[in-house]
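Hi,

I'm pasting everything inline rather than attaching a file, because the server keeps stripping attachments. The sequence lines come first, and each chain or strand is labelled.
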Amino acid sequence: MKVLMLILDGVSDRSVNGTTPLKEARTPNLDELAKRGINGIMDTIKPGIRPGSDTALLSLLGYNPFEYYRGRGPIEAAGAGIRLKPGDVAFRVNFGTVKGEGSVFDKIVVDRRAGRISDKKVLVDAVNAEVEIDVEFELADASGHRAAVVFRGENLSDKVTDSDPKKIGENVKKVKPLSKEAEFTAKVVNDFIEKSHRVLDGHPFNIEREKKGLLKANVLLLRGAGKTVKIPSFEEKYGMKLAVVAGTTLIKGIGRLLGGDVIEDKRLTGSKDTDLNLKIKMGLEALKTHDFVLIHIKATDEYGHDGDFEGKKSFIEKIDKAIEPLLSLDFSEICLVVAADHTTPVTVKDHTADPVPITIVFDQVRTDDVMEFNEFTVYKGGLCRIKGEDVMNIVLDLIDKTKKFGA
Amino acid sequence: MKVLMLILDGVSDRSVNGTTPLKEARTPNLDELAKRGINGIMDTIKPGIRPGSDTALLSLLGYNPFEYYRGRGPIEAAGAGIRLKPGDVAFRVNFGTVKGEGSVFDKIVVDRRAGRISDKKVLVDAVNAEVEIDVEFELADASGHRAAVVFRGENLSDKVTDSDPKKIGENVKKVKPLSKEAEFTAKVVNDFIEKSHRVLDGHPFNIEREKKGLLKANVLLLRGAGKTVKIPSFEEKYGMKLAVVAGTTLIKGIGRLLGGDVIEDKRLTGSKDTDLNLKIKMGLEALKTHDFVLIHIKATDEYGHDGDFEGKKSFIEKIDKAIEPLLSLDFSEICLVVAADHTTPVTVKDHTADPVPITIVFDQVRTDDVMEFNEFTVYKGGLCRIKGEDVMNIVLDLIDKTKKFGA
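And the predicted assembly:
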């Protein structure tokens, strides 16, 4: 028996005059799943704790985020394709633009995205080839102006500040140690920032950009330091082969951190223009070769961040159409979980801790009276209110992949 | 004020085409209790964790099974009447039959139940009288071919394997240490198995059986090693005198482990042929002399293991008739809890983690809209979804036997 988990990022809302985009949207397919399944509301971490998409997803996959989450750095680095080892210290990186004289730390950040550069692979390669510091490092290219860097060696710490000033017109910040043990790390990272700046600033690719009137991508802005912890792979933990179908680097990163196969396609953009039909198709395809498939849809969250009620509603209707093939699954063999990772109310424009809808469809579940999949109905269902950390256990029990405790 | 807890072992199910034996059964009395009480569903251990009857019952009685459960051995030994001390290593035992030459470990198990022998007390006494090994031990008779043995002394460990090969046609297995510290225990236990075999094989009772064409009960097959931990008695913990009315050795064992009085009668068989009316009558009788009475009914679980929907349904209807006297209890003085310990779906034929129905009847509880006691109704009740570990606290609060935390 296999599991398909469909995560609709931030799909749920708080009440806007008694309704929500999910309630307003016409969603015959989601409603049909709610009718066939068992429903509830869920605190993906715990009541009142606002989840990130990363911490929520770790929790939903049965990995306690308080134990395994060490900041965005390692996840982004894994998402960018770096094979992390325990002890590695990873950062998220922006390619940015600095102007001025002297050390990189005396220069001013004039753009945090280097004019939204994206074809920067040659610069990544140059830094990896030409920079030498006191420890091993690896810079990895990611989408747009983004990258990730990992430092590897003895005595490295993630208790250091960001170099990214977060706004333009300010100096690149020196990375500062937050503890005595982190002094060496801060020194090494600052050395990396200085030396990579020199390589980038003089690189023919950037000279060429300058001639064309484009901004030079001549600084690496680091943030989100995180030290990689030992994390059991999904397959070790559950004896099931994991596939993650996602367009978002963060979600791919979690898939890779857990040793899963990440199913990618450039048409899966992790944004509003993603190809939803393709995503569902690829997810169903992956179910043939994997035991557990996670399909992640991101844009519902983006509409929440934008505060766009109508846009969110329309996109939910698009999702509803795209998931029609899920109704034909063989629910004697496949357990389907549909849920959000957190609430992203259009009224708040950020994640909140309001619990999220969850529906589990499987032949033997105790169906309840819930007829619609939304925030005002699912809590009346047979799951009542559960936690994210319980989902994997509940699902493993349903598909008979769990052991009895006792006799 | 007193408490009566009625546990219907494995009474709940997963959905079978939208229904269950409990839903299909005509249960006017259980339904009346649900109407008068407050209802909910319950994870006896935690969501998604499949309970044994033993771990579930410990949890329901407020004993964290992760702390106090150490395998079946100690519970079966307590059930067989041995007064355990912390540090004792206990095993479940089958009287079996071996044939062959030389050491017991070179012989072949031809029957794991010695022809379902039951009148074996004389053999138990002989082993206790004649076998000498390097530590103290006690063999105790139990029902049918079953027994239990306890080893007592310094430096004993439960990190040893079983001697029971679990199938016929194989050798008796040498008990193996699973850690360096367990080497002494393995040696002692193997010595016990060898020496008890010699006593049994030559015993006049077995010689007589052989003459009659019966199988000799000439080997003790050990399994389920568990080291007894210090466990506070029910009376120490709650200041209430416990009585357990049960036919199943496992449940009696838990009652004895917790220092309770076990109310027995050979008509309470712990099986499908048990005298349900007598069981309820003895439970009500025990309420006169005890503060907390647990009545345990086993056969619902057996019908689940058998996959027998109709049998389970009929037996539930029998239970419903038998519990009619409970409706006349004085609920201003007695708090009644009716629940399952775990789900045993006829579709799975084993325990699952699906949450179980629970009803609490007491004059002051907030009654809810639940009109029927089954898996499709109770979750809508006022208890919502609770955990087994919360039940004792809820009940102690209701009967006013708890203290305020704070001012």
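DSSP finds 14 helices and 14 strands in chain A.

If the labels don't parse on your end, tell me and I'll reformat.
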